[in-house]
Amino acid sequence: MQSNDIRKLLTAVAALGLMMVFLIVSAIGLIVMVQFQPEILTNWFADSKEEVPAVEVQVVDEEWTDEKIEEVGLVQGEGLQLVLANCTNCHSAKLVTQNRFTREGWIQVIRWMQETQGFWDLGSNEDPIVDYLSTHFAPEAKGRRKPLEVEWYSLE
Amino acid sequence: MSSYFSGIIRKFVKKERRSFIKKISLASFASVLGAEIVFAENMPKGYLPVFLEDQDNLKSLGKDPALKVLNDRPWNVETPIHLLDDKVTPAEKMFLRNNGLLPEKIDPSNWTLTIKGESVSQEKTYTLAELKSKFKTHTYQLTLECGGNGRGEFYPPAEGNQWGQGAVSCATWTGIRVKDLLDDVGINNDAVYVGYHGTDAHLSGDPSKESISRGIPIDKAKQDETLIAFQMNGKDIPMAHGYPLRLVAGGFPASASGKWINGLSIRNKIHDGSKMESPSYRVPIEPVEPGERSPDENMRIIESMPVKSIITYPKSGAEFSFGKNLDIRGHAWAGEEMISKVAYSIDFGTTWHACQLDAPVNRFAWQHFKANIKFPKKGYYEVWAMATDDQGRSQPMVVPGWNPKGYLNNACHRIAVKVI
């Protein structure tokens, strides 16, 4: 290997090292900035969001395991992912699974949330969501009073 | 990749939840998760998205783990009836009905209460310390029952948390009289309603929305027992129940008793805050067929709650030997009225027998009843309790008149027992 080549290699390594140092310093600077003034990122994020219609942006929830879905009372089926993405941002899934409505009833609840609670327009996702809800969470006739559900125990 | 980072964040959050939130924005959560959060800019600072929620929260709310979580955002937690056996409901067994997010970071030394509205001559602000020192304090046991208690039994189903019968409590509340406060502020003769304002953020995170801002008619506000409370059962009000200040209006739906309050509006018309509008906390004036829509003009605001009773001992499902008598006990209340009698039946209402009934400790406190029951033969029985108020109104044995939001179910409570 020529000394010329070694010099070139050293120059390249030095340049690369300088770039690395620069990148690390910038990253640290950015982290410090966000730590002290998180609004910078929030503002940037909010600005950039304005162009995106809400209907197409959905939360991908990494934590919806089958166990958790069962625990909150949801059932597997077509439309479940849309329900998870749209109906669990403000309130928990348990508020959904406690209730029972017909198709019209679920639409009424969605309209109430849109009119008074700041819920977004579901666009073309509304139909599959309402289908899912009215299929799996439909009213069941229970009469004027149901029989008691009893867990027996021995009274001392 | 993103799940790896969210895993790290979650572990870290458990350790340093509060300090961590102060330092990081939701936008940066979204960037590490690789997904945007819809309306993230609307989420209040310091609120964790649902997927990062700590499931051990029931304990951190100071609640008995046997309570039933109907909803964890907002918190709606019901007390199993047998856990309501105490004469005065302890904090850990008190049902929880929140409409918004729990406020974070409450600093009592900087807490103020501002009295404003069309019917005050001049807006006035008090510090917490001033309220405690300037006015005489009073203590009452007051029954607070959720307007939707019992909703789960209505058919067709009504929208909302599907409460059983356990959204009721009677704790000891200490505070100052609202009327003393209003006298000090000076209110005009045209005052009609007192609306409250609290610091619990709206679920949508929209800071321009109040999660709930209801209130009480001025006559209710002027009752001796209507308090701006700062203590429950002799201690600071627990965080989940409105620390450091809440309105307490016994006998009215509990939603009238605002939590975490920092403002009162003295209105010259019926207060028009959040959840004062129809159909919230309203029932039809002219009764409607089950499932029928009721126009807004046919809806009235619920004031005094109806007559009701619960059997808190024994827990439903008791088996015991033939020949042994059964002691039962429980509580009865009737909104702003007194209970005049409580009866029990072990034959599905064919015959009724009087229970021994205590007088209330004070107005709007629930009354305790007990009885000793002899069973004629072995078998399955249901013990039903029926209270009657001093206006002669009793509890229905079936679910009462249907209403769009499923309020005021005061059907008789019943427990199952087996004599073996």
Instruction: Please give the largest β-sheet of chain A.
Output: none
Provide a count of the helices of chain B.
6
Radius of gyration of chain A: 28 Å
CA-CA gap between termini of chain B: 61 Å
Q: β content of chain A, as a range?
A: under 5%
Q: Which class of the largest domain in chain B in CATH terms?
A: Alpha Beta
Helix content of chain B: 10-25%
Largest interface: A-B, 54 and 63 residues
Percent in helix of chain A: 55-70%
> What radius of gyration of chain B results from the CA coordinates?
23 Å
The helix-and-strand class of chain A reads: mainly alpha
Strand and helix order of chain A: HHHHHHHE
Number of helices of chain A: 7
Task: Report on the architecture of this protein.
The complex is a heterodimer of chains A (156) and B (420). Chain A has 156 residues and is an all-alpha fold. Chain A folds into two domains: 3-49; 58-136, Cytochrome Bc1 Complex, Chain D, domain 2 (Orthogonal Bundle). Chain A has helices at 3-36, 39-49, 66-71, 80-87, 93-97, 103-116, 126-136, and one strand at 153-154. In chain A, helix 6 (103-116) crosses helix 7. Chain A is elongated and about 95 Å long. Chain B is α+β, with helices and mostly antiparallel strands and 420 residues long. Chain B folds into three domains: 2-54, no CATH class; 92-301, Oxidoreductase, molybdopterin-binding domain (Sulfite Oxidase, Chain A, domain 2, Alpha-Beta Complex); 308-419, Sandwich (Immunoglobulin-like). Helix content of chain B is 13%, strand content 30%. Chain B is built from six helices and 24 strands. Chain B has helices at 2-23, 26-33, 57-60, 128-134, 178-185, 218-221, and strands at residues 68-72, 75-78, 96-97, 112-116, 124-127, 137-145, 168-177, 193-198, 215-217, 227-232, 235-236, 246-248, 261-267, 282-284, 299-301, 308-313, 318-320, 326-333, 339-345, 353-354, 356-357, 367-373, 379-389, 413-419. In chain B, a hairpin with a 2-residue loop joins strand 1 and strand 2 (75-78). The interface between A and B is large, with 54 and 63 residues. Chain A: This is Sulfite dehydrogenase (Cytochrome) subunit SorB. Chain A: The chain crosses the membrane at residues 12-34. Chain A: It comes from Mongoliibacter ruber. Chain A: InterPro entries: Cyt_c-like_dom_sf. Chain A: One of its GO terms (molecular function) is electron transfer activity.
